[in-house]
Amino acid sequence: MSSHDSPISLSGSATNLAKSIVAEDGGHWPVPEGTILASAVRRLTAFVLDSIIVSSILMVATRGLLIDAWNLTLWVSKDFHFALAMVLILLVTHWLYWRLTGVHYSRSLGQKMMGLAVVAEDGSEMTSEMWDQRSARKLLYLIFPFSAYFGGYDLLRITRRHTHQSNVDLHVGSIVVHSFSLPPAMRQHIK
After folding, report:
1. CB under 8 A, 24+ apart: contacts of 21-26
2. Which end of the chain has the lower number of beta carbons within 10 A, N or C?
3. What is the pLDDT of residues 104-137, one digit of tens each?
4. Parent domain of 48
């Protein structure tokens, strides 16, 4: 048995197979050891929870007029501007919600309920500019028919990438992790 070489070898300072693969591609893996990346199911559940929270508040605040955003007969009538106004209110409110909860808590309320946090690729706190970009890009998930395409595509990418990153994450330079899995020194900004 001593003359037999293992078909899997770890080179350099990589400590597991995923980190070794990243190292072979010329990349790096700056996330602290032991960090658990969020699955697509947890992330989707957090997104649905966030959408329910924001939409429920808007339904109460607009006294039910928010439903006009999805009223197709209103969209094709001469009063389409009422539907357009509700869509704009929905998008601006979601953007503000994701940005403000991200800057303050390092996660949205849905992500908090699921035990997740959003951090930079190296595990550090995200900047305000990163939250701006992330919040704006997530709006595509709310606009039908883009929501079906981009949402489905990103869920597929999350399940297939070893870093569990969506295209939004890759653009911004973020990862979604289980908040308890970060070292205590790196989760001080997570509320």
Report:
1. 21/162, 22/162, 22/163
2. N
3. 888 899 999 999 999 888 877 888 899 999 999 9
4. 32-186
